[in-house]
Amino acid sequence: MKRNRTGMTLIEVLAMLLLISLGLASVIGLVMWGQRLAAEAMARHTAMSTARSLLYDAHPLLRDDSGWINVESYSLSLPTRVTQTGFCNGYFVERIEEAAVIDAALDNVVRAQVQVRVFSGESGKLLSTAQATILRSGE
User: pTM to 2 decimals?
Assistant: First the structure.
């Protein structure tokens, strides 16, 4: 007599569960990887925005407890090098400005090379750097 099979064996069910669980684990891993990449991209974008704003603003609007040090006024007795460090937007920032007189006839105008480096607050990893040449005029 011939028997009609109408079900699945236990081994077939276990093999199917194994394949489904491997597929789900792969999908979950890809989602977590994508979220990490998105968070890193957002951090780099915010770090670059912070660096670009600090290029031109030597005195950012910070809280008193921000830890921003060496914030001083710029004198036109040159050459000068001013290094500022501190936290801004949750990132550790280093701002270096080196200034020199452009021309003896224009003694109240200086050219400054500004470099800003932004580091991650937790790991200290360099996220962004920006540099520019700016002109400052004295009163």
Answer: 0.68
